[in-house]
Amino acid sequence: MHLWITKESGTPSSQKVPGGEQGTYSYWDPENWEKSRKEITVLYTDLEEKSIPVFAPGQTLQMSQTQPSIQSQQQQQQQQQQQVIAAGGRAGSFQGMGMAAM
Question: Where does the sequence pass through the membrane (predicted)?
């Protein structure tokens, strides 16, 4: 069985026992879909070795760009303005007209 446990802060420190530690740990309970606490004995031999540190140097989370960056948006706006100027200012000539004029 795989279980992610963490030591609970603000509780008495765990006590060393032969081959492990006994103390209060938090864990995720998938059956009740909640974080729970339990007094347990953790044996070092039962723990799985981590092959890669959780926060290894050089490994960072990258946000994917679903929207253009601010610089990209500014470049697009400048291009649109240049197109309007090149078109003799015709773009946007319908602004301010009421529905009756259409």
Answer: none
- Extents of the domains making up the chain: 5-46
Rounded Cα distance between 26 and 7, Å, is 6
Q: Distances from the Cα of 81 to the Cαs of 11, 50, 72, 96, in angstroms?
A: 63, 55, 14, 19
> 81 and 73 in contact (C-beta within 8 Å)?
no
- How does pLDDT run across 30-87, given as a tens digit for each residue? 888 999 989 999 999 988 876 666 666 665 556 655 555 666 667 777 776 666 566 5
- Residue whose C-alpha is closest to residue 40's, from 81, 64, 83, 7: 7
Instruction: Tell me how crowded residue 40 is: count the other CB atoms within 10 A of its CB.
Output: 16
Fill in the amino acid letter for 79.
Answer: Q
